[in-house]
Amino acid sequence: MAPSHQTVAISGAGGLIGRALAAALLADGWRVVRLVRRPAAAGDEVEWDAVRGVPDPARLAGIEAVVHLAGENIAAGRWTRRRMRAIRDSRVEATRALVASLARLPVAPKAFLCASAIGIYGDRGDEVLTEDSPPGVGFFPDLCRAWEDAAATVAQHGMRWVSLRFGVVLAADGGIVGRMRTPFWLGLGGPLGSGRQYMSWVSRDDAAAIVQRAIADEQLCGPLNVVAAEPVTNREFTRSFARLLRRPAFLPVPAGLLRLIFGRLADEALLASARVIPAVLLRTGYEFRRPRLDDALRAVLGRSA
Fold it and tell me: In the CATH scheme, what architecture does the domain 7-301 have?
């Protein structure tokens, strides 16, 4: 448990991971400052934006660590040129602006943890991927690489940095589970395309616990795969999801239809295969709270064993 005077600033604190992380930190005695993109309305809020960073960096004096989770939703719609530019700016340029604000502090935070994604590996089929694997090819890998490069510049200002390469986060109130629940309840669920592509997933409880560990563990630095140790194919994921809901899953979604609706998003995210292993976490002895997919889905779907 951290002393109550230690403080973590979080951007995206109202998001899927940010909510769980803030709650876990507060429960363990940390003070949490929320970076918000509007005028601060409470004592635990500090205003920032993607262009100016933090207008008044002095408000962050004494911060122990910054966890940067904010960014445009990658899966919210078709990847048009305008949307791809917005996605990139909300991550790369916003990270640069935030780092510039932190660099102006007389005493910098000890650690800067920045969200990234396993999308950095691209579509790699059955290849087993770890933090040492090279980036893939495409918009998503290029985006993640630039995003991580922007975060890594904090090292020039004496801060430890961690790139949190999140996989598919399983939570009851949003993310992929929220999008899948209704069509599966209606009997319209099924694998995406061939269903052979690997999905690397993590429960939200584990995602928050891993970030909290990365804040405290000074040995963790650089890329960190935030995924469970048992990636599954999309078909296996679909079968498990349908079985726990006691619904059929016989209707595969054709790859061509996904490409028609989502454009490049389909090939680089929905149909891409990333068989990612959390090598760094396993090496450091992290024990997953939800190591198996059925247990994780059972928890978020409210199903008993």
Answer: 3-Layer(aba) Sandwich (3.40)
